[in-house]
Design the sequence.
């Protein structure tokens, strides 16, 4: 196995930095930071540069986005069929082969996603599929956001990950991250991108880093399921929806505290603790972190960043990789999100499944002194289907304390099958459906008592 060694052995012995290399690190990285990691106020909301661009594109395309989503989903099925049946030369190997030469289960998911979209758009078929709160939510509400958000995320991520910023931050904070969380320092970027931008952006970064050999199977699994929290912007939306926006500071403080404690505990329990520290085979390399030698930590971190920037792909290769990323997200991920999300919403809205499953939660909530425990119980588990469902159920609850607890819990559970879960199952990170379910339940069991304690002790 070869290794990607980012140690002083690959740097000039005197630690000298070329002006060209320094600028090649600084300029793209500053662009990436400004687009992904710097929040700013826009009216009554908080957003990031990339989010603002996505919102602009969403406003420009407007009502055409659901139709575009239907076209993209149908195109995914048609190209997959072509590749499976005709086996064209351009798809016999490489990225197109990986994207479209899929197994029967994944093809079935793509077909189901396209079928759900067509039925919802043209309003034919069973009402439980085409309803505004099942297929309608996925096609008219979520798909437009994902199309615009992922478009800019895939195009602009290279500024954040290909020009040394990951190496710079990773080297600066690798010791505390390794001691506290057992993770490489560069995973701090994944967490920050999630907090400021979106949990899906954090997962995208983690997936790319894993496929390039920077994270082991265990590290990638831990980062994706414990640090990819929803954005501040979405947190504001949730608090407004459940009418606790006057408690936003207390709400977000509770989410951060509970989330950090869960990030300390969950990776040390199965199934994450049983993931091997081996690397993605096709890459055959891994990041080797060694000591800084005689250099100070900052100087060493800067040296690693410049080394990475000097090896960054050229504009043509960057553009090519970005377009492949966009195609992969649109044609491979979006159908999966549409299929899983619609099925999950159907189960939540048209069956008593989540109500039945939540019966054991009633005595737990009563033990934690949460008012309206019976009404709140389904909201504690329905988040596995979609991140917004707990907030929808919480609007019917009178107790402000209970709405506060449910809103906090929905953000700390992290595993939402309509978005994060679908993205993880589609990625090469080795996480199975049952493992995602177990992690969701573990996070619920750990964070719920913490949230209840903070709510009772400090805020209510």
Sequence:
């Amino acid at each position: 196995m070869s290794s990607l060694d980012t140690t002083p052995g690959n740097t000039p012995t005197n630690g000298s930095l070329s002006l060209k290399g320094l600028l090649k690190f600084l300029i793209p990285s500053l662009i990436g930071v400004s687009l992904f990691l710097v929040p700013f106020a826009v009216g009554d909301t908080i957003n990031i540069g990339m989010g603002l661009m996505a919102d602009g594109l969403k406003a420009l395309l407007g009502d055409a986005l659901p139709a575009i989503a239907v076209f993209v989903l149908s195109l995914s099925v048609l190209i997959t069929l072509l590749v499976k049946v005709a086996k064209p030369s351009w798809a016999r190997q490489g990225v197109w082969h990986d994207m479209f030469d899929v197994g029967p289960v994944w093809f079935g998911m793509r077909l189901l996603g396209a079928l759900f979209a067509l039925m919802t758009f043209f309003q034919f078929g069973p009402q439980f599929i085409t309803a505004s709160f099942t297929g309608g939510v996925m096609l008219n509400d979520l798909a437009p956001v994902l199309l615009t958000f992922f478009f800019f995320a895939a195009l602009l991520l290279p500024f954040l990950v290909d020009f040394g910023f990951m190496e710079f931050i990773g080297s600066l904070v690798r010791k505390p991250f390794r001691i506290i969380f057992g993770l490489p320092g560069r995973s701090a970027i994944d967490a920050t991108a999630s907090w400021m931008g979106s949990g899906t952006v954090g997962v995208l970064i983690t997936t790319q880093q894993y496929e390039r050999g920077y994270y082991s199977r265990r590290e990638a699994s831990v980062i994706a399921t414990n640090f990819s929290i929803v954005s501040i912007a979405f947190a504001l939306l949730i608090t407004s929806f459940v009418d606790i926006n006057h408690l936003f500071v207390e709400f977000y403080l509770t989410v951060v505290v509970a989330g950090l404690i869960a990030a300390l505990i969950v990776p040390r329990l199965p199934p994450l603790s049983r993931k091997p520290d081996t690397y993605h085979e096709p890459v055959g390399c891994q990041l080797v972190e060694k000591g800084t030698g005689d250099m100070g930590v900052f100087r060493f971190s800067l040296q690693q960043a410049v080394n990475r920037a000097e090896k960054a792909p050229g504009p043509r290769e960057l553009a090519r990789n970005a377009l492949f990323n966009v195609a992969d997200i649109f044609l491979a991920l979006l159908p999966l999100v549409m299929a899983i999300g619609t099925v999950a919403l159907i189960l939540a809205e048209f069956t008593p499944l989540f109500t039945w499953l939540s019966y054991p939660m009633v005595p737990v909530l009563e033990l934690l002194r949460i008012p309206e425990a019976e009404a709140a119980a389904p909201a504690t588990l329905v988040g596995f289907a979609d991140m917004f469902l707990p907030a929808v159920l919480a609007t019917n609850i009178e107790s402000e304390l209970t709405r506060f607890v449910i809103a906090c819990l929905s953000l700390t559970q992290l595993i939402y099958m309509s978005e994060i879960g679908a993205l993880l199952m589609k990625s090469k990170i080795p996480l199975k459906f049952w493992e995602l379910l177990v992690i969701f339940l573990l996070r619920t069991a750990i964070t719920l008592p913490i949230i209840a304690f903070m709510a009772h002790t400090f805020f209510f």
User: Anything to note?
Assistant: The chain has one domain: 4-345. The two ends are 56 Å apart (CA to CA). The longest helix spans residues 315-350. Residues 1-14 have pLDDT under 50 and may be disordered.
